[in-house]
Amino acid sequence: MAKSKKLAGIIYIALIALILIPFDKFGLPLITAPLALLLGLVFAFIFPNPYPKFNKKTSKYLLQVAVVCLGFNMNLQESLRSGSEGMMFTVVSVVGVMALGVLLGYWLHINRKTAYLISSGTAICGGSAIAAVGPVVKANENEMAVSLGVIFILNSIALFIFPPLGHILDMSQAQFGTWAAIAIHDTSSVVGAGETYGPEALQIATLIKLTRALWIIPLAIATMFIFRDKTSRISIPWFIFLFVLAMVVNTYVPLPQMFVDAMVWIAKRGMVVTLFLIGASLSLASIRNVGVKPMLLAVALWIVISISSLIVVLRTIA
């Protein structure tokens, strides 16, 4: 057992080091976002995670650092202009998915809190929304694990299938960025899919997704009244405000190109490492613990939001 854990630790560290190498001899990314997630998944299925606490905390904070650094490569005025077309549908989709998720959960006889958490994760920003709302509804460990597990499984699938679908449908950068931000659960996979599709898609997807993530605050407040508990604390995603501040600085302050390039490198490599860490946290046991009904609810909501947002995006965005 000790030897197996030591071997897993060596391979774990070696894979992270490999991911940090930005380019091969042809100047192409050595490890892309989907490949990093795949490596993490394969690692998790073969080895027990040697550093589970480190893995969990690092994936959370590294994602936030990467997103903030990405802001130093974005112009606030251009980003708002590009992303404004997706804002209205964001509002409609968040409210619609929450309502539909609660109704489907009742129809499928799923635990009320589990259905609410899955709906929150689908409507807003995956694991971040679940982590913020969970304490408000006083969800137990099993309810949190099931909700996070089912959302993460679909989130991982999305990173692999969305970019190819975008190319098959001949979507523009703006169309794909908007669609990915609305239909993919977690910020990590939204950014990964946007980066895979192109630079403009990355900027639009990041902006709309983070705007969507701000809905955590009103949702958490509403949740306190729905579940009749005004004592629960609300977890505010402060890093989103730092992301906006980084965009403001980059827009109005002449920054050295070397600094901007360094921030872009940290953002892109940090996001790829984050996806590996997220993949490495998933195990076969966690997949088995999800259950059929929660998975059916999550898949149904995902299909609804994916198809409806695709139709709207193709009709309204050039």
Helix and strand topology:
Elements: H1 2-20, H2 33-46, H3 52-71, H4 76-83, H5 87-107, H6 112-123, H7 127-137, H8 141-168, H9 173-183, H10 187-197, H11 199-213, H12 216-226, H13 239-252, H14 257-280, H15 284-288, H16 292-316
Give the biggest beta sheet: none
Radius of gyration: 19 Å
The helix count comes to 16
Strand proportion: under 5%
Q: Strand tally, please?
A: 0
The gross shape turns out to be: globular
Sequence stretches where pLDDT stays below 50 over 5 or more residues: none
What order do the helices and strands follow? HHHHHHHHHHHHHHHH
Distance between the termini: 56 Å
What proportion of the residues is helical, as a percent range? Answer: over 70%
- Overall mean pLDDT score? 82
> Helix/strand/pairing class, anyone?
mainly alpha
Give a written overview of the molecule:
The protein has 318 residues and is mainly alpha-helical. 78% of the residues lie in helices and 0% in strands. The chain contains 16 helices and no strands. The chain has helices at residues 2-20, 33-46, 52-71, 76-83, 87-107, 112-123, 127-137, 141-168, 173-183, 187-197, 199-213, 216-226, 239-252, 257-280, 284-288, 292-316. The radius of gyration is 19 Å and the shape is globular. The N and C termini lie far apart (56 Å). The model has no long low-confidence stretch (mean pLDDT 82).
State the gist of this model:
With 318 residues, the protein is mainly alpha-helical. The protein has helices spanning 2-20, 33-46, 52-71, 76-83, 87-107, 112-123, 127-137, 141-168, 173-183, 187-197, 199-213, 216-226, 239-252, 257-280, 284-288, 292-316.
